[in-house]
Design a protein that fits this description.
6 copies of one chain form a homohexamer. Chain A has 288 residues and is mainly alpha-helical. In chain A, 48% of the residues lie in helices and 5% in strands. The longest helix of chain A has 30 residues, at 54-83. Chains in contact: A-B, A-C, A-D, A-E, A-F, B-C, B-D, B-E, B-F, C-D, C-E, C-F, D-E, D-F, E-F.
């Protein structure tokens, strides 16, 4: 279960409020690379750990709760970028509707219209956060790769945001979040190391059951057949150490040869069965 | 640009059509772990490669085109599971509406209602494929982790499907797809190896700019402070070799202390400023 | 503006309630082929007609209001299939929770859980209706084709539903709805006829500005070059009467040759610029 | 910021695992009436409270953290309904693929395919949780009504789930969740009482600016004009005490009279301007 | 069933077209606080009323039809803000493509690209209207709270839009819509009053079945245990008059103790069962 | 199966990069009128063709592969509009963060934040591509109308984009795409011609089963009954040649008369059954 206190996890200060940057920060809240995704992803992964894997449940839940605090920090940053205008600017706003226009032409309309100048569970383009972003597959190795990916795109996003602001408060907050993403990338790699031999994921599927003619062949789909380009992925021992890379082309499996669907589907396009002359249809349609 | 021919990439045969398995197969077409995702993900990643990275563009495009062929195979498998009923069953279907009911009680309604007993760009729960599934971040290392994750959850899905069918044709098709996922996991790992030192992603961000007090600390959020559990992720050299893991707690950053939004937002809940007695509001609201 | 009265547009009777059919009927309410789509589509098209096109505004609004009545009919049909169980069945339901299970195993969970055994604005797979289904392009010819398509897939859906039920009340209701779709297909074709020469849509774009080397050529993308198959679409006068069909292949436009993005995007995957040896990167990255 | 410990908030026991009930429970996790919605809604509302409203920030955050614990309980309940099959059933599962089929025909495919028999952030129909479910308007009175509504539909859902299971463990868990919803409905009503005079929301908008001819009139849209039905909402003093209910009809505001869009939009449907004979277009189109 | 006529419900005039305001108005059409939501919400609630509740069906349908007219008004306002530019501006537009750019830099791209400068069924951020916005729970008390909430956030939105425009026509239209929201808030409160004792919703669930140890306790989740803050929601009689508020903490329910999923799920992360040394797995995995 | 080569299908050059136009181009990639939709739509239609319809499978697949090449062209155009800034601008960008701001104020945030200045599978408003856009109904006539509609709105979009740019490279690319849409409109019309008599779609449903009183009547829903306006759609022979248009009004089908749902749904709003005095509920609720 969960607890909270009244403090932010780390200071959030904004010197010069910037409504446009408030829009950008939304990506780090409700975007596919954002904190809602990782907080909930680690939580759902933790929820599914069996009792034998209490260490992993702990590991995931510790970081899930940390990420909830990042949502709070970023939401605070959005509010401060939208609201903490200096007093004269705020006074002026009361007298001059044009200020609202200025705040919004470069901002995200719904931060004002739907949230009264606060953060929302949406991304920088204004799309709602989706449960589809969350990966909790039941297999820890697959999940660790999902987490590494999430922290990689998350840190990439944070560095891009860092480049887009000159505000010292925002740079300080982002430097903290970037540091945490460094740690999280490392900790998920560490967990993967602890899990032992995990490739190919899922490791518990007996590779003798997979088609062994094609499990280590790089398959070229180039229109004209190419020579083996002698890349790391076309020759030599495979990364999982269980095969030898080779270079080939698509095997080909014949034309699909589908039957028609049953008549009740009314897939027949024309009354006469069309111009295609397949008289066999007439035979059956008379029984209808 | 793209080309096609009339053959499937690999044979798709169904001995005993099973509408319920047709529903399950949808996950491998339009699901987050499915083939539409990887085909389009590799394609969009390829589209963004600069001219200096032609090898990577090739690598990605070769596999993108391969994955398109997997969509075709799986769509064919869906149609065959829904339609290739033996002749007597199909004849009976014409006379007996109850057969339709039987086909659908365990199936996915829209495969019949919207697609005339064919595959759709949706997952096994019936949700539409979404462009949100696609990750093409502009950074190849982040993208390779996204690809490893996609092939890990993809192979996991395929092995689960393999366990759920006894049809030899379906098992053969899935054994092929599982093998290809083995290769694809290996090839993206190989690409990552070729890229060199990529951690923490993005490697081009100068780590001196990140907050160096917190970039290798495991942050416990346990309610009661815990001892260092001496895990791989709480002590010793970090996986990227650039730091030393430590164990700590959330630093704390004070209360957020937000200002009120401008009056035009009408965030004030009550006419008298509520029961909270914050008289400072009256000062400003009289100017309104 | 709009009005209503207390009657359904046409009788809706259910002799034998069938929760599974209630699930199927959802497609005709909130599905892409359903009545919410056409009602709102015709409404938004009407809303955008300029004052010179009052006849078309009328035409669209007349049918929009009719379609609203179809939503009401279908919602009533859903409720009756879920609720109008005979008295003994309903009495039993009060005593025996298993009846609820039976009603739901073949039904759609949210019709019970979220709507208390009533219709919802979702499709047969349970996906919410989306504003994305609505096409109102501002160009009447494009809109008329969107309407013909909507009524074609709508009538196809209704005929499939007709085949799936034996209930005389449901068959009667569907026979009415199928008839209306016949009329609506005809009326949108009639509107198109009245609009005059509309091909290619939009007709107001001067065809001399389009690339006249490729505007009537069937472009084969077959891997191996094919002979002209002499189909209606590969030779002879075009359907719009403004060109001559021909048969060719993709022209080819060279390699895309993209530049790298600015450094602040942190697209660089590795610290050394990767193993790809593109020394040009070093030049710029040292300036960073 | 947030913390966690290793315990559930309340016991979750399942005596007889029921995969179909696991599907139903999803509505209480990721559905619009579910716990993800309230946890995140209260959190975002808390994030936006100005420093003068610390009591309300506390109130909201206390309950947000409580609701996170409900997600954990329900996710545990899903896993136990899918997995805690008795030993013989689990042993049999290893030998008999048909058991998987049985577990899934009545369940939700993605709980198996995507989550390895665990909970997902989706509803009972399988739709992903959406940030769109979350209401945090910036105005506390509007938010309190959103919360009362959320707890009303939430408790309604929980009572429906209670009726659908005979498992004593599940009934005990739901009796706890229903009790909490009782409290939460009461606490949001209490907060509203404390806020004072809040109607009509937002109370800070000067009612003299709204159209005072229509602000307390019940507007009948019946096709034939009706008599005042003398309901509570058609006569007598209004609920907010600021007006007198009356009964009337829609005022009517003339035909919209839209101009045509600029030519670059290509809204013109036909080459001759269609059959509508508005010659004015010819004048301008010749300049194009 | 439904009817329409040629008039708007109320005048819609725009003196100075403003494409940016046209973007904002979208929130009132297709946003979660918008008119499509309430029109369809009241309609679906009406569709589900049993024959004993004809007054409520009438009440809901009267207002549903009114709200349809509001969509029409707002769509007209969007078109007029995008199109009714004065003649010189329109003439100039024909000669100068830059005007299009100007119209769009501050506007919503799809209003031009997809709708030819007309309204769309989307919100101000450009997200499509979703059936998920609609609440029709089957329980009238829950629905009335959903309606009060919808009209509260709807009126809040309308007042914010009112503050953002100086156009007298737009202010007049919004003053009308704000007035109608005042009435609608009042009428749903009146309906709730008529329904009698409705708390806690649903009132028909016997409270003796809910867990009576926790149904009126405010549950603090603060990390450090707090004293009772003596708020309206922590002591005294509850709002529903059926309990006494108290103040406590989360009860705690032990560790979840999940079993592992069946082997066919391939949840095992590594070939050796990982580094976790749970030998029990080896026993079963040898049978595989 | 599919193949590719290294060339674009047609040249893509940008003289003056324009981030705002890059945003607009997204509509042609991931929008409902865009190339992802048609590529995948034709592909799914092809996948479902039975073996008797190989010509149609070929026709569809030829164009599907062509459309994939259009996605590549447009993605290249987006990258070039975002990145191919002249050298001084790019150098300046390294020194001056303000340039990033300039690139983004008029652009789409996620093209930078999520894609590193590349194309994404989203539309111009930033919404993700959805599988819901794809129509593959199983009936070729319905599908051909869906294709004509897609190419009509697609060409309309392309002409609007053509009007919004002055860049010669972009105009040349769009002139090519507009030409291809001309051809595609023509080829789907040609396919429809070949199919023969297809109206009303689906032609295989026996029209004697539809309600013949209403299948050719234009149904006016005007509040006051109107005279027949003598339009093409209210009199004369119908377009399908199978009926005679007439003019009438909605038939009316009585009040819906729904029963109450079973008690376990807890649809009852109040404890006393509300103010509606339906005593019959008390009888049953005592048995509960």
């Amino acid at each position: 279960m969960f607890y909270h206190d009244n403090e932010l996890q780390y200071e959030v200060e904004v010197e010069e409020p910037d409504p446009q940057f408030a829009k950008m920060l939304q990506e780090a809240i409700g975007g596919v690379e954002g904190e809602m995704r990782v907080a909930l992803q680690y939580m759902f992964q933790a929820f599914g750990q069996p009792k034998e894997r209490q260490e992993y449940r702990n590991l995931l839940m510790e970081t899930a709760a940390e990420e909830l605090g990042h949502i709070e920090m970023l939401a605070t940053a959005v509010s401060k970028n939208l609201q903490d205008a200096p007093e004269e600017m705020r006074r002026e706003a009361r007298e001059n509707d044009a200020v609202i226009d200025a705040m919004m032409s470069g901002g995200q309309p719904r931060q004002a219209l739907s949230a009264g100048l606060h953060a929302m569970p949406v991304d920088a383009n204004g799309n709602a956060f989706s449960g589809n972003f969350i990966v909790a597959s039941g297999n820890l190795a697959a999940d660790m790769y999902a987490n590494i990916m999430a922290e990689s795109t998350g840190r990439l996003l944070a560095t891009r945001l860092y480049e887009m602001t000159d505000d010292p408060g925002m740079k300080d907050m982002l430097a903290y979040l970037i540091a945490r993403d460094t740690m999280h990338q490392n900790q998920w790699h560490a967990a993967l190391e602890e899990l032992g031999e995990t490739l190919p994921v899922p490791a518990s599927f007996d590779q003798e059951k997979e088609n062994q003619d094609f499990n280590y062949e790089f398959m070229s789909t180039f229109r004209e057949e190419r020579e083996n380009p002698h890349e790391r992925w076309t020759e030599g021992v495979s990364i999982d150490g269980k095969g030898e890379f080779s270079f080939g082309t698509q095997p080909g499996g014949g034309n699909p040869q589908l039957e028609k669907a049953i008549e009740q589907m009314h897939n027949e396009a024309s009354q006469a069965g069309g111009s295609m002359g397949d008289s066999s249809i007439d035979d059956t349609s008379t029984n209808e």
